[in-house]
Specification:
Length: 280
């Protein structure tokens, strides 16, 4: 078990969405925090919110996780400020809307640098320190689209599948070495955040109609609040769960993919269409 009270947790992508909810929940349960994001104003707002109800030690770090040098600097700063740091949550992520032929290589690399390499570089930067703690935990946030891959998400799914593979292989390495570091990979379903609203669109897409349609569909099917997602992740950390599925939709899709590994999308597409119509 990795205890939250008395822990020190580093969270990337902390200024909004699941990251922000995690910070609030963790502080409320007695954890100190090192919070990272590109959005400095968002971090300041978050710290002020936490201070009003949970007087914990908090450090704020402006970090672009796509830059390995910034991640290395972030790790040095955090370890200096929080010598007892024992939990790392790689949460930062972005979305890219478009079919494969509608996005260019630079856009795909932009997404990978954040969603995949950001987590890998942070894990590499923090792991030596975490390995010296009596109990430690790494949490890598993948997606249900790291279990099944829908059309229009070639870049996002590729990165989230990569996070899953990296996390599972590293977990097995840590277990084999008898390391005190546990590792959980998180697969959220539809979470009520702004990730789709803030997504970039493929360079070959003109106008805002596709974005509006994607937002409308996402709003109709997103069933889980960021707060509930954060609580589920924390429970998974406490129980040392290797895989954390969030939401009934994620659990359904996980089972569907196991039952119909090559043909799941026909079933899923019909289900999404029905849910979208009910949401209008």
């Amino acid at each position: 078990m990795t205890a939250i009270p008395g822990a020190t947790v580093a969270v990337t992508g902390a200024a909004s969405g699941i990251g922000r909810a995690l910070a609030v929940e963790l502080a409320g349960r007695g954890a100190d925090l090192a919070l990272a994001d590109r959005d400095e104003a968002g971090l300041q707002s978050l710290a002020a919110d936490i201070a009003r109800s949970s007087p914990r030690k908090i450090s704020l770090h402006r970090v672009d996780v796509a830059d390995p040098e910034q991640i290395a600097g972030f790790a040095r700063e955090v370890i200096a400020a929080h010598p007892s740091l024992n939990i790392l949550i790689n949460n930062a992520g972005v979305s890219l809307l478009g079919l494969f032929h509608e996005i260019d290589q630079i856009q795909m690399e932009w997404l990978f640098n954040i969603n995949f390499w950001g987590a890998v570089h942070a894990t590499r930067a923090f792991l030596p320190h975490l390995s010296n703690q009596s109990a430690a935990h790494i949490v890598n946030v993948s997606s249900i689209f790291g279990i099944m891959a829908p059309p229009g998400q070639t870049a996002y799914s590729a990165a989230k599948f990569a996070i899953r593979g990296f996390s599972e292989a590293l977990r097995h390495e840590l277990q084999g070495a008898g390391s005190p570091v546990r590792l959980s990979v998180v697969h959220p379903g539809g979470i009520k955040t702004n990730i789709v609203r803030n997504s970039r669109t493929g360079s070959a897409i003109s106008g805002n109609e596709r974005r509006s349609q994607a937002i409308e569909r996402f709003d109709a099917i997103a069933q889980t609040s960021a707060k509930d997602a954060a609580r589920r992740i924390i429970r998974g950390i406490e129980n040392n769960e290797p895989r954390i599925l969030i939401g009934n939709d994620a659990r359904f899709m996980d089972i569907l993919q196991r039952l119909r590994p090559a043909t799941y999308w026909k079933v899923m597409a019909r289900r999404i269409e029905k849910m979208s119509k009910r949401g209008k």
